[in-house]
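ok trying again, last paste got cut off:
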Amino acid sequence: RGAYGVFLQGLGRFPEAELALGQARSRWPQDSRLWIMGNGLLLESRQYAAAIEYLRDVTRRPASIPAAVVERVARQHEALATGQGLASLNNDGRNVSAATLMEQMPYPVTVAVLRGMKDQAFDLLEAYFFGGEINGMHVPPPGSLDERFTVALFMPSMLTLRADSRYASLLERTGLEDYWRKSVPQPDFRRNT
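nice, full thing came through this time. structure:
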């Protein structure tokens, strides 16, 4: 149900995605990945007030999610909701380790895009898929057994990045273009644009 919720989210079908993720969370309430997906859904659908409430609801938050992380993310949502304090979030992001940023993907990319920080969004995607530098921190390239999910490239917030040549480069370098050349159907995002 959680993966299905993310699929629906990528299609912009937010109410259905929320229902699917809610069903998954009711079955596995302490699953931190599902909780993070729920936050991402609220962020993608621009429901900032609901996201802040969701984050701060200790009855729904898995025990493995530290309160300090929740407060940092809630401040990001508050800044996105009001447009106030966005500049201070640049410094806030530098206090997060590169490993933490990579573990939280695609959330950091979504935040960067919503803040209008296209270069940072591409830097995050580059580091996630291939290794690189983020905020002066080295991110090693993923190992052969490290999973890298391309779903982040197709979330509704990424629409603003698609016209940039770096987006096409990511599709090529991740192997998606090669896969699509060898398969008959074109990806939905190309048919629906």
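cool. The first strand starts at residue 132 and ends at 134. The radius of gyration is 17 Å.
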